[in-house]
Give the backbone structure.
Amino acid sequence: MSTMTDERTEQGRQDRLLRMGEPPRTLGEAWRKLVWILPWLVFLSSPVHDLAAGTHQPAATAAGWAGLAAFTGTYLALVLRNMGRPFSEPVVACMVAVLGVLSVVLTLTLGGAWIGLFVYVSVVCGTTFPLRVAYAAIPATTVAMVLVGQVVGAGAMWTLVLLVLLVGFAMTGVRQLVRTTIELRQARATVAQLAANEERLRLARDLHDLLGHSLSLITLKSELAGRMLPGHPDKAAQQVADIEQVSRQALVDVREAVTGYRRPRLAAELAGARVALTAAGVSCDLPAEPVLDGVPEESESALAWALREAVTNVVRHSGARRCAVEVARRQTLDG
């Protein structure tokens, strides 16, 4: 219950975050993204004030409102787009061109109060164009703003020049950050998928080793019990009891393999090997209690798996009449 609550809490926290480079998934997330963008629309306050002051002819005012709405809608469409799957390059180029044309036409027509629109053109150049194109488009936007500003007599041009350049180049960095975030998210998903595939392979190998050995032993004992049943029912009953024990142990081994906690022990595998070889009619020479002082558990586990696989191969494929296993530690020249 606690784990499920923690997962819900984490999911809720993730839902409240603004996902970089992803489109809004819910209405609430769309509003949060819009609220995050709204403060950056401060440069539209000057055109709005200019239109609201009523200093222009009615036709010019109406055209100004229409142009401002078109400019804002195009800008928001570009900024809110999914950077992970952006618009096609021709569409982006057309939309940026629309913003540039509207900035020039509205500023030349309605006056210097509209010069701040070039800031938004610089922003979309930094966030939508490839780096090489952006590095050329941002200065070009700045030059266009200076020329238009000279025509309409706009003031504080040098401040705007620095702002347009800084904001534009800063947005290229933001775009790279968004792309890096997307790539990291995709890499994380790939790593998780690889880990899941590796776990499936591990489970498949373990089940092959576990069930291959156990089923071979059950088959041998079943055949032996069938041969003993007519003349030696007591011995046949003992073989059936052994089959039950082996099947129960196989079930335990499978459960442990699925949970990932199974670590076979060499002593247990030696005892199982003796039972399997005896049932197959193979004379065996196995150590009763291997000396494993100082042997790491990982090494013992590897030895146990190797012994199990070797005995399974002897029983299934070799046709041998005698099998000897030696467990010894030897010091070699390389340590």
Remarks:
- The chain has two domains: 2-189, 263-335.
- The chain has a mean pLDDT of 79.
- The first strand starts at residue 283 and ends at 285.
- The domain at 263-335 is CATH 3.30.565.10 (Heat Shock Protein 90).
